[in-house]
């Protein structure tokens, strides 16, 4: 089976010219890392984790280092992962002093009888697994500090669209054996209440993966995504015989018309078809398949290069 990986860098209201190239490089290297894992015979879970780690480590994105700050100026991160083979899933929320929440989510999936650990419990588990604790400050960037200051000045937090909610990251993959997986990781939304948990760690909302159908990772206004279970809703449409394009359009359209919520989706099906779709202004994405790397940021933009 020809493997596929698709990654996103979050729905956004527009990416400044200065940041555009950095964002593009980040998204391209995440897709390349994921694809190389698949080409080397790695599993879909390995590929989505590997791709998301690249984006968590990249300060341009709202996940891991570079996460947005909550109302107190602290980072609280959410992440989840799912293996389409047996629907096993792992998630963490409100974690602070960990470089790669997606790795911790995978450990929850593989090393505990549970699906979801939060806050101090998640951090205690991380310590028991030997995951290094890092000072929270290490994840805070100058850009995220300035972003929070601006947000507080404008008092515009938590609007019912994803204009303020940029940069969440995610990946979906199909491996050589026909297994699918997703991973999603985020700092959430800027100026959020302490303890606010968004859609990204919630299976069915932030993502879903089932070998019988396909895999999805979502981004956008978390409260809207949670209310419509955006990821599972998309796969439901696929199960009902809709095309990839139709499934993504229908679920995002429902969220927009019902809640005025904006967002984005990356989707791969069990046959290796894929689609990216968003209702926000832009969404950085990249997809690797059959030796080609496709990518874009704005609507209608598709660049294709050969993968070496
Ligand atoms: N940019 C995002 O996708 C934010 C994320 N969905 C959240 O609401 O936590």
Automatic annotation (TrEMBL):
Q: Where is the signal peptide?
A: none
- Statement: the UniProt record of this protein carries the keyword Hydrolase: yes
EC assignment: 3.4.19.5, 3.5.1.1
* Oxidoreductase is among the record's keywords: no
Which keywords label this protein? Autocatalytic cleavage, Hydrolase, Protease
Enzyme class label: hydrolase
Q: What reaction gets catalysed by this protein?
A: L-asparagine + H2O = L-aspartate + NH4(+); Cleavage of a beta-linked Asp residue from the N-terminus of a polypeptide
Q: Which Pfam families match?
A: Asparaginase_2
Q: Which family does it belong to?
A: Belongs to the Ntn-hydrolase family.
Kindly give the PANTHER family that the UniProt entry links to this protein.
ISOASPARTYL PEPTIDASE_L-ASPARAGINASE, L-ASPARAGINASE
Q: How does it assemble?
A: Heterodimer of an alpha and beta chain produced by autocleavage. This heterodimer may then dimerize in turn, giving rise to a heterotetramer.
- Please give the name of this protein: Isoaspartyl peptidase/L-asparaginase
């Amino acid at each position: 089976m020809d493997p596929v990986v698709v990654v996103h860098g979050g729905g956004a209201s527009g990416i400044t010219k200065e940041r555009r190239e950095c964002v593009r490089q980040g998204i391209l290297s995440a897709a390349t890392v994921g694809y190389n894992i698949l080409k080397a015979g790695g599993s879909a879970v390995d590929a989505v984790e590997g791709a998301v780690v690249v984006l968590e480590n990249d300060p341009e994105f709202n996940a891991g280092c570079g996460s947005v700050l909550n109302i107190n100026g602290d980072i609280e991160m959410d992440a989840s992962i799912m293996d389409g083979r047996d629907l096993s899933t792992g998630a963490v929320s409100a974690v602070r002093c960990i470089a790669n929440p997606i790795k911790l989510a995978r450990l929850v999936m593989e090393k505990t009888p549970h699906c979801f650990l939060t806050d101090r419990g998640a951090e205690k588990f991380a310590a028991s697994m030997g995951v290094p604790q890092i000072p929270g400050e290490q994840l805070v960037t100058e850009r995220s500090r300035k972003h929070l200051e601006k947000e507080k000045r404008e008092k515009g937090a938590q609007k019912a669209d994803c204009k303020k909610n940029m940069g969440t990251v995610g990946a979906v993959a199909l491996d050589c054996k026909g297994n699918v997986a997703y991973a999603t990781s985020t700092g959430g939304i800027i100026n959020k209440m302490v303890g606010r948990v968004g859609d990204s760690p919630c299976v069915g909302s932030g993502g879903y993966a089932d070998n019988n159908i396909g895999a999805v990772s979502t981004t956008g206004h978390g409260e809207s995504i949670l209310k419509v279970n955006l990821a599972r809703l998309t796969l439901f449409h696929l199960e009902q015989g809709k095309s990839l394009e139709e499934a993504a359009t229908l679920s995002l359209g429902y969220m927009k018309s019902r809640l005025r919520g904006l967002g984005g989706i990356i989707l791969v099906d069990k046959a290796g078809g894929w689609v990216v779709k968003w209702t926000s202004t832009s969404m950085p994405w990249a997809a690797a398949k059959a030796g080609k790397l496709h990518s874009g940021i704005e609507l209608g933009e598709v660049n294709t290069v050969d993968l070496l």
